Amino acid sequence: MPDGRDRIVVALDAADRAALLATARALAPHVGVLKVGLEAFVSEGPGLVREVASAGRPVFLDLKLHDIPNTVAGAARAAARSGAAILTVHASGGVEMMRAAVAAAREGADASGVAAPRVIGVTVLTSLDAATLASVGFSGAPREAALRLALLAREAGLDGVVCSPEEVAGIRRACGEGFLLVVPGIRPAGSAKGDQSRVATPFEAARDGADLLVVGRPITRAADPAAAAASIAAEIAAGIASRR
What CATH superfamily is the domain 4-242? Predict the structure, then answer.
């Protein structure tokens, strides 16, 4: 059976630097990727990425960049210097913006002597439902909007996208293997949905074709985080094994 541990991206949501780093070090043996979000990055700066990476796992820098192409290029160039393995931009910024981010991330990484991050596009946030999406001007269901944005991301040369569990199967069919699908909104059976609207279990997301599964509170706030991660890894492995 495949190893599900390397498919887990744990969202580090501790309130301060010391707690975040302690969580990263404690969970690194039990997950595949460590995710640093916008709040922590803005609070602590690029040095935090290097400190988290010292725990021995790749770092997913989840900044969701979205601005005019030149501004996003500058931010992506700077972010890449931190050594992050994955960097997010909003796919709704358009093809030109996404292409600028990819090129600039490579430039920044090359200038710093580090590997270029995989740049992936955020499609439709998992906190958004159909009504909220319509209220900001998107026509159609979240699934349709996510697929449109995923195809734009592929056209722009991105390495993959972030999408909810509900969109995984359709995007996988449309974009093919080798296009990285990173999936938040993961909730083990019996867990609260929290602030997520479109969710699935680890088994379901892995079965449908997710490559990396983003999990936060079900691991970091569990009574035994290592055991929670192991349980999720087993579900992921079973889901991969069940793929047709």
Answer: Aldolase class I (3.20.20.70)
